[in-house]
Amino acid sequence: MSGSTITPWVVGNWKMNPMQADAQQLIQDFKSLLQAHPIDESSCYIGVAPITLALTTTQTALSSANRMVYTVAQDLSRIAATGAYTGEVSAELLKDSQINFVLIGHSERREIFGESAQVLNEKMKNALNAGLTVIYCVGESLEQRESGQAEQVVLQQICDIATVVDSEQWQNIVIAYEPIWAIGTGKTASPEDAQAMHAQIREGLSQITTYGQSMAILYGGSVKPENAVELAACPDINGALVGGASLNAESFHKIAHAFANTK
Ligand code: PEP
Q1: 92, 108, 115, 178: which one is catalytic?
Q2: Cα of 71 to ligand 1 centre, how many Å?
Q3: Residue 112 backbone phi and psi in degrees, to 5
Q4: What's the pLDDT tens digit per position in 240-257?
């Protein structure tokens, strides 16, 4: 089965942005764009990942959109359930607030906050066991790409989680391939390079899980309206994880529109 039969996802990662008033305006503008130029729910899943503090206000504001726009957590605790863990938010607490999606393994969490494969596995296990859908980020650094290790690094990151994901839980995972050198830099992987890596990821997934052919594999790294159509045209690119461009309602809407209409 071709990856192109998979419903695409376009998810905005707002990272540690924006201030409250700007976030509300951004949501309002996005809802107005969806009203003026609808994007059919069956042609593209759309989500946004605000700061933890804004998860429920974002969800409430999005509930009046003319279609489902999912609210995604940017992170969760490696500790499950509830307890004396100052500053933490567990998978169960997210689920309790009807937040059903979470990012795990973003390169900023791996690099800036030193999250190891072991920590990511604890988060993965908690998220899946609580019934969340996980957007699991993988990607190589510039040095790794230049030394010919990109594929090996990315496939290892996929293999890392295989030890904690049960066979049926793979259907609750979306992969986001984000070459680190393309994040926030304005440099995008060429559609050919991105497609080649996505095909490798799909091949790797298919050796681990029977869901490999039906899992969405998103591309992330300086996705913008100008490159979205070309990326969307690649058979194994099933959507985008969008950082900077998701902070502009018009750009984000255009990217979602591109994926909805090219797939
Ligand atoms: C990201 O951080 O997930 C990302 C892809 O950022 P940007 O689109 O800004 O490169």
Answers
A1: 178
A2: 17
A3: -80, -35
A4: 999 999 999 999 999 999
